[in-house]
Amino acid sequence: MNLPTDFLFRTRRLMGEEACAALCEALRQVPPVSVRMNTLKCADLPQGGRPVAWSRDGYYLPVRPSFTFDPLFHAGCYYVQEAASMFLEQALRRYVTAPVAMLDLCAAPGGKSTLARSVLPAGSLLVANEVMRNRAQVLAENLVKWGDGSIIVTNNDPADFAPFGEVFDVMLTDVPCSGEGMFRKDETAVAEWSVDNVEICWQRQRRILRDSWPCLKPGGLLIYSTCTFNREENEDNVAWIARELGAEVLPLQVPDGWRITGNLTGADFPVYRFLPSLTEGEGLFLAVLRKEGLSTGGKSYEQVSARLLKKNLRKAVKGGKPAAGTVPDTLKTWLVGADEDVFSVTDGLVTAFPAVWHSLYLYLKEQLKVIHAGVTVAEQKGRDWQPHHALAMSTARTDDSFQQVELSYEQAVAYLRKEAVTLAGDTPRGYVLLTYGGHPLGFAKNVGNRANNLYPNEWRIRSGYLPGPEETALVCGWLGAGH
User: Fold this and answer.
1) What is the pTM of this model?
2) What domains does the chain contain, in order, with CATH numbers?
């Protein structure tokens, strides 16, 4: 790897000659492979895996399986996440102890969002946003697979959140950056790096922060992170947030054994920098801040949502469409705790959303582009209600709602490619839930002589490659008993 001369000069000036040399040597090594388990779906531990010290459910793997051809990857049993990024867990566990509304502002592809959704206290709401539409679709897919319904996925510019006022208790800004911390995983990041790009990035980051700052409550938590090393995008921006926006920089308890580097600028506020030369992972910078000030009041989203609900009901009645509350009772039995959800029908899709956050959902939906919210339970097909794939992925789905059919590895991969799957002759007709290793993959409709594959076409495995026997054994065997 030929690192840019300007990058080397700047890094020596920031870290010193010895630390810079160690970092450059580490950037030439093969990066570790790590995953974070979804314990609500899978209790198994990776065979030969070593725990990630700062993550309760993170593990380093001794080898890299072909994740694309692992059915449990598609079932949402784990997320392939770089280990340093899992450090977000420490900030959330330290400062978030009661149910909150959290905004992940630059969330795609979803690693930190799925982590936050697992770590936040029960009863919390996560709003995950991504400005790029194609990346927002990937974000929604990963959160649906993770299985928690207390989510909203939006496709908006950060500035679009400012008009809503002080509605979020926690805001994560994993801002777009120059990507120095990803050099050894992404050759494009090396090729595109320049001093000018660093300049563009730190200015863009401040614009994102300034635009979104009004939607964080006074006393609310801001978690700021990048995957780069330089001071302009890291310490300098944290100092700017504290000074110009009004925030207190908060400390975290970090054992010396984790070998996480602190502030490199000589300033006295705490920050946390992961260097591949010291910690087993890629580059990460993170700081935690608490917003100062008192609430300015403003319009209540409960009042706004009540007006919107009445408006939507009038439109539904006028259009002759099913309105909220007219969802067939059978569909409500498909979810555990359905009495705590608000069910609604929109364009033939039945959605269940946590009642405690429904007013905020309506408030946000008025001006944001929402591409997913809650659990999509079913879709109307003629006179039939077809269970939705999001229901198959949901951790709140009742176990006895559908007949479950276990697939072999070969059948599971064929199903995930959206190919025809032949079921046993004694399989009952109608909708069945297909599983692999006991974990749901999705629905099929058994019509007797064939089974209609209902896996989402846009999620299918597109590769025509067939894993060989050794690769199949690796994929199937990297988890403990039960995989």
Assistant:
1) 0.94
2) 5-30+81-291 (3.40.50.150), 301-393 (no CATH), 403-477 (3.10.450.720)
